[in-house]
């Protein structure tokens, strides 16, 4: 995606997240299923496997992602774009909890910052600042 679209997505995600409480309550009944995921760590194939086995987020398919979306793997940016997009499309069905890897110092150490700089050489710093703001 062009940097302008990534920044727009980040802006809209930030605006949405600011409206939410610090604690999310996810309620379900016996007939509904909630998929809980954690520690994707930049492994896009893992996210695709989860969606393949459980279905894409939808009004009838809720997901809770328990943080650690980034670092270590090479496709952290793609994971965040997908998760933030689903969050905006299905705000009642997709829940994102912040993990310890959604932190600037951890990102510096484990690779998200460096990977983002390579992915977007021209706008990398601006995009990184916006990601940190969303985190």
Automatic annotation (TrEMBL):
It catalyses: O-phospho-L-threonyl-[protein] + H2O = L-threonyl-[protein] + phosphate. InterPro entries: Calcineurin-like_PHP, Metallo-depent_PP-like, PPP_phosphatase, Ser/Thr-sp_prot-phosphatase. It comes from the Eukaryota. Its EC number is 3.1.3.16. Keywords: Hydrolase, Manganese, Metal-binding. PROSITE patterns: SER_THR_PHOSPHATASE (PS00125). The keyword Metal-binding applies. Its cofactor is Mn(2+). One of its GO terms (molecular function) is Hsp90 protein binding. GO terms for biological process: negative regulation of MAPK cascade. Residues 97-102 form the Serine/threonine specific protein phosphatases domain. The keyword Hydrolase applies. Belongs to the PPP phosphatase family. PANTHER family: SERINE/THREONINE-PROTEIN PHOSPHATASE 5-RELATED (PTHR45668), SERINE_THREONINE-PROTEIN PHOSPHATASE WITH EF-HANDS 2 (PTHR45668:SF2). This is Serine/threonine-protein phosphatase. It comes from Sapayoa aenigma.
């Amino acid at each position: 995606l062009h940097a302008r679209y990534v920044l727009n997505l980040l802006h809209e995600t930030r605006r949405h997240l600011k409206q939410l409480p610090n604690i999310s309550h996810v309620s379900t009944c016996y007939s509904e299923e909630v998929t809980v995921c954690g520690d994707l760590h930049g492994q896009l194939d893992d996210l695709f496997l989860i969606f393949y086995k459980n279905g894409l987020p939808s009004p009838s398919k809720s997901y809770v992602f328990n943080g650690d979306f980034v670092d270590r793997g090479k496709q952290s940016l793609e994971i965040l774009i997908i998760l933030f997009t689903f969050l905006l499309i299905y705000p009642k069905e997709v829940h994102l909890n912040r993990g310890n890897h959604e932190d600037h110092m951890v990102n510096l150490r484990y690779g998200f910052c460096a990977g983002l700089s390579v992915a977007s050489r021209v706008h990398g710093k601006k995009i990184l600042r916006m990601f940190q703001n969303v985190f």
